[in-house]
């Protein structure tokens, strides 16, 4: 028996054009017709995720920022897990001292330390998914994308806490040489602040949340609050920030394009995000449940 479908977005629900393909939409609508709800569980914030869902005609709860915040269908925050203010400021201090590009997320929006660096990061993401595309075209798409136009920019991200009184939920560092820069920093931050959880959603970044702000814990809480059994949940993902929910769900699927280490934590593998992997995972899980 399947009670809930949960899917990551980037590299999973979204295709190489960063859109939700019709086959995935049809599969989600099929589960709706069977009385099975659908939830997005993403590293994105509400606005970033909702734009793509609206384009596809999908209205659903959004577990955002790697599991640290839950929005209902209308964008109302049902819960959030913040990084302690001083910890967030200390981490941002380290980023500024090292000169890294950073993003900070609150319940209100995503904030970037540099519009140009945000464009470069999205350009790299688009080009990585479409290697046949020229860098110039990838940059043009990035500049016009919702991932650039819907977020806000701050010269100093620390003012979100010190002047605006916002609580930071997630901090992201991006660098072109992560193995020699931000990944060693991630180990340092993890040792200094054991109440943090550090993961990654693509090869050039690290993402820092509170230790209780993971996708796995978020899905477990969602099940408890809504009367679902975690063994009857389908979870689909592709990267390291998805591992906790893949380990938790009864029917866990790694995308064919997932990192090899991520695949080890899933019970099943589906096709890539270029080839309707979420739809194929849903149909496969439904057949499995019926046969059992």
TrEMBL record:
Keywords: Hydrolase. One of its GO terms (molecular function) is phosphatase activity. PROSITE patterns: COF_2. One of its GO terms (cellular component) is cytosol. InterPro entries: Cof, HAD-like_sf, HAD-SF_hydro_IIB, HAD_sf. It comes from the Bacteria. NCBIfam families: Cof-subfamily, HAD-SF-IIB. This is Cof-type HAD-IIB family hydrolase. It comes from Aerococcus viridans.
